[in-house]
Design brief:
Layout (H helix, E strand, L loop, with lengths): L1 H23 L5 E5 L6 H17 L3 E5 L6 H8 L7 E6 L5 H4 L11 E10 L1 E5 L9 H10 L5 E4 L5 H13 L4 E4 L3 H10 L4 E5 H9 L4 E5 L26 E8 L4 H15 L2 H9 L3 E2 L4 H22 L5
Parallel strand pairs: 1-2, 1-3, 6-7
Antiparallel strand pairs: 3-10, 4-10, 4-11, 5-8, 5-9
Length: 322
C-alpha cells in the first residue's frame, strides 16, 4: 500500500507541471506560422481562426508568414519552437508532401509534431489559359498536349508543392510532355498564367473561380471524388477515366512535439467551436473550403497516410524538388 501511494504521488507530481501549464495557457500572444505568402489559402484560414481565437481568449494571435522550400521553412520553425502551445503551424497538405521530395530536411514531419486538428478541405482545379489552350474540356486539352510535346509550359508556386507534383503525376501516367516553371509563391505564377507566359496550372478551385467567371482562365477538371460545389458543371478527373487524381486540399493545425496533451485538447476544442460559428463557416464556404473539424489523432493519421502515398508517387514518377 505504501509503495502504491508513493507511485501515485510520483504520478501526480509529474503531471502537475502539465496541468499548471494547461490551466495558465495561453499566457502570452500566440504565433500562427503560415509556411506560405500573405493572401494564400493557409494565410486566409490562419487569419480567420486567429481573429476568433484572440476574441475568445483575450490574447493576441500573430500570423507570421514564413514561405520557402514548399512549406519546409515554416514547418522547421515550428518544429524547433518551445512546446508550450504558443507557436503553431497552420498548413495545407504540402506538410505531408514536401518532406518526401527534398533529399534532406531538418525536421521529422511525424516525430517533431503533435497534431491539433483538421480545419477544412477543398479541391484543386486544372486551369488553362484559353488563349493558349482554347479547349472546353480535359480530354481535348490532353490531346493538344500530346500533339505538341514539350511546347507547353505549366507553372507551380514552387518545387515540391501539390501543384507541381499533380502535373508530374499526370505526365507520368499519361505520357504527356510539358515543361515545369516553378515560381516563388503563387502570385507570380498566377500572373504569368493570366498573361499566357505559362499555359496551364493547378490552382485551388476557389482561387481559380473568379478568373474562370471572368473568362480569363478556364477550369477543365477538378480533383476529388465528387464535383466541386463551386464549379458543379466541371467534371472530375475520375469522370475522365483518371482514378489517381483524387488528391484532397486539406488545411490543418499542428504544434511542436511534446506539447502537453491538455494544451492540445484545449486548442482542439476551441478550433472545433470556432469552425461551428455561422460566419466562419460562411467565410470558408465562400472560399470553396468545407469546414472539417476533427480529433488530433485523425489529422495525425492523415499525415502518415499522405506521407506514404506521396512517397510512392514521388518514387514511381522520379519527381525531385532539389
Amino acid at each position: 500500500m505504501r509503495v502504491f501511494c508513493k507511485l501515485a504521488l510520483v504520478f501526480v507530481l509529474g503531471a502537475a507541471p502539465l496541468l499548471v501549464a494547461a490551466q495558465a495557457y495561453p499566457s502570452r500572444p500566440i504565433n500562427f506560422i503560415v509556411p506560405f505568402t500573405p493572401g494564400s489559402g493557409p494565410d486566409i484560414v490562419a487569419r480567420l481562426l486567429g481573429q476568433k481565437l484572440a476574441e475568445r481568449w483575450k490574447q493576441p494571435v500573430v500570423v507570421d508568414n514564413k514561405p520557402g522550400a514548399s512549406g519546409n521553412i515554416g514547418a522547421n520553425a515550428v518544429a524547433k519552437s518551445q512546446p508550450d502551445g504558443h507557436t503553431l503551424i497552420v498548413t495545407p497538405n504540402t506538410f505531408a508532401l514536401a518532406p518526401v521530395l527534398y533529399k534532406s530536411i531538418p525536421f521529422d514531419p511525424i516525430a517533431d509534431f503533435a497534431a491539433v486538428g483538421k480545419i477544412a478541405v477543398g479541391s484543386y482545379a486544372l486551369t488553362v489559359n484559353p488563349g493558349s489552350l482554347p479547349f472546353l474540356n480535359f480530354s481535348d486539352v490532353l490531346a493538344a498536349l500530346k500533339a505538341k510535346p514539350g511546347q507547353y509550359n505549366y507553372g507551380s508556386p514552387g518545387n515540391g508543392t501539390p501543384q507541381h507534383v499533380l502535373v508530374e503525376l499526370l505526365k507520368f501516367r499519361t505520357g504527356v510532355n510539358v515543361t515545369h516553371v516553378p515560381y516563388k509563391g503563387a502570385a507570380g505564377a498566377n500572373t504569368d498564367l493570366l498573361s499566357g507566359q505559362i499555359q496551364l496550372m493547378f490552382l485551388p478551385t476557389h482561387t481559380a473561380l473568379p478568373f474562370a467567371r471572368s473568362g480569363k482562365l478556364r477550369i477543365v477538371a477538378v480533383t476529388g471524388a465528387a464535383r466541386s460545389a463551386l464549379v458543379p458543371d466541371v467534371q472530375t478527373f475520375r469522370e475522365n477515366g483518371i482514378d489517381y487524381m483524387d488528391s484532397e486540399l486539406w488545411f490543418g493545425m499542428l504544434a511542436p512535439a511534446k506539447t502537453p496533451p491538455e494544451i492540445i485538447a484545449k486548442l482542439n476544442q476551441e478550433i472545433i467551436s470556432i469552425l461551428a460559428l455561422a460566419d466562419v463557416r460562411e467565410t470558408l464556404l465562400s472560399q470553396g473550403l468545407v469546414p472539417t473539424p476533427g480529433k488530433p489523432e485523425e489529422l495525425a493519421a492523415l499525415v502518415r497516410s499522405d506521407l506514404a502515398r506521396w512517397k510512392k508517387v514521388v518514387d514511381d514518377a522520379k519527381i525531385t524538388a532539389d
